[in-house]
Hints:
- The protein is an alpha/beta fold.
- The protein is built from 15 helices and 19 strands.
Amino acid sequence: xxxxxxxxxxxxxxxxxxxxxxxxxxxxxxxxxxxxxxxxxxxxxxxxxxxxxxxxxxxxxxxxxxxxxxxxxxxxxxxxxxxxxxxxxxxxxxxxxxxxxxxxxxxxxxxxxxxxxxxxxxxxxxxxxxxxxxxxxxxxxxxxxxxxxxxxxxxxxxxxxxxxxxxxxxxxxxxxxxxxxxxxxxxxxxxxxxxxxxxxxxxxxxxxxxxxxxxxxxxxxxxxxxxxxxxxxxxxxxxxxxxxxxxxxxxxxxxxxxxxxxxxxxxxxxxxxxxxxxxxxxxxxxxxxxxxxxxxxxxxxxxxxxxxxxxxxxxxxxxxxxxxxxxxxxxxxxxxxxxxxxxxxxxxxxxxxxxxxxxxxxxxxxxxxxxxxxxxxxxxxxxxxxxxxxxxxxxxxxxxxxxxxxxxxxxxxxxxxxxxxxxxxxxxxxxxxxxxxxxxxxxxxxxxxxxxxxxxxxxxxxxxxxxxxxxxxxxxxxxxxxxxxxxxxxxxxxxxxxxxx
Length: 501
């Protein structure tokens, strides 16, 4: 354990930053978090207006065991900070001419698949047996590796199960081996979209996400996803973490291969400050910290390296308030009623603004009356688009907004446009300006085989001895649960390296 005068500075108070800060403080470090926004949460911030409460980023709560384990390591329970409700159905999927509600009950889910493809119920058992093994090994072991060396993965149960983990098979082929009906294939491929890559480019290891979906369930934290941030922030304060809000880091000062201090500027007052530390953890955008805060001689990766990375998508987001309740809608709704093959190419293969995109619609007020005024509906919409697109304007956002509103009205059989009393959009250029997001990505790096584990940007700088990274551009990858784990992994690595010194 470090001596009391050893301190660490964390850049960013998103999930990974809060996690890293809390674990380091627990290990005896003096921890200061510098966050450019006025509240914690990063991409998972919230805002309130006209009686509506909008979660700005993540809206799906999967892998409840990861959150329980996180809080348990601080002697707490999830229920000490927020209450959970399991959604049933988990979500609704709209296809071209029909829709399916995904039952929370496993046997009911089997019956649904069996009704369109005889034999699918037994196939699901086999598929889920493999998915559980991958979940136990993947989430239980692999994601906790810092990715510093191949030797980390030399454990007997990992080696003997390397073929069961399906690292070298892709998800599309894996799903097609078990299921033939196109709707079933779409549902089974859907969870890997959270990982930011096409099923044909994602290792079949990630069928562990199907286990998280079907067995682990889809949950909702009371008062919204920001309840998680609020709980983690309280844990950090209980551990003694200090926070500096509204301050943006502008420069990391390096002397003889050691980061010595950072210069910040207050976004409102323009006051500049300098902080000294023994260790720094970058929990903001990795690319931004490397290329904008460090001199080029201290950057671990070249511009070509970054340009060659396959990024997860960006998004067009809409936060919408309606002055009426809609009938018959679910909390989570996936619109798979257009050709994902075409949309997928527009995201990954030939980046372009999509012609007829798939999209996601969430109505948290269906579950939670606190997020909208009485008799009103809270609506969150997301269209995945390619990272790095030019031409992000209010005009193009409005075009897509009217397109998807028209599609929803047609499928819901009721009007929406005439009930809108609030609307705010957030897209590629906002991800850049608000989060310094590389190419305006929303989720980080795509989890392809060549961007997994040791092949991700390292969580330890190759040029600066005391600079570490955490979050969705390093191990273990994108998503809320991986971000919690990322913070824990880097905190452990910092502590181990310090104790060796």
